Amino acid sequence: MNRALIVVDVQESFRARPEWSRMADQDIARSVDRLVALARDRGDLVVRVLHTEPGTGNVFDPERGYVRPLAELAPALPGEPVLTKTSHNCFTTTELQRLLTEAGVTALTVCGIRTEQCVETTARIGSDLGYAITFVTDATTTDGVGGLSAAQIVERTEAVLRDRFARIATVAELEAERAAERTAGAGGLAVSAG
Questions:
Q1: What is the average per-residue pLDDT within 118-124?
Q2: Which of 95, 94, 160 has its CA nearest to residue 127?
Q3: CA angle 33, 109, 98 (to 5 degrees)
Q4: Burial of 32 (0-12, 13-18, 19+ CB in 10 A)
Q5: Helix (H, G, I), strand (E, B) or coil at 55
Q6: What does the pLDDT look like over 11-25, one tens digit per residue?
Q7: DSSP letter assigned to residue 11
Q8: H-assigned helices in the chain
Q9: Which end of the chain is least crowded, N or C, by CB within 10 Å?
Q10: One of 35, 59, 67, 118 is an active-site residue; which one?
Q11: Is 118 a catalytic residue?
Q12: What are phi and psi of 78, to 5 degrees?
């Protein structure tokens, strides 16, 4: 199965907003970088998508200079797409689906900023398009909204996605799965060589 990691809106625009101080995980770059390293190790496609609102004059307007990955994120490597979107999901206003189709991708791992908004919406749309989705909650972040705390929003998001639209996983679980794959692969090589 060919996989891709979709990094959603992990960008300086959010840090430039007053709401940043209320984000549940202001160190999201660390978890995202672990997923990027894992994806690269597996040979998965890594795609970064940034939210943009041209002409608005707000922090998502490219003219303001904040529509760029968080400074502490590991930079994209040559061949790793960086797309911009103007919708909540990563598909509608980008070439993401075409890129994934051309790469033969059938499974997506999603992470990023605003657990319940752009990351969840991307997971839902991706599922509807036929991709197997893994939603890595601890590599997302959000703040409270509508009277709900960030923790309540995360709990709600996991509940509505689990077993309907996505598999819910943690970064550590995915790293452990990769370690098990490597062990199984090494064991298989030892058996075939002996």
A1: 98
A2: 160
A3: 110
A4: buried
A5: coil
A6: 999 999 999 999 999
A7: B
A8: 12-15, 28-42, 96-102, 120-128, 150-161, 171-193
A9: C
A10: 118
A11: yes
A12: -55, 135
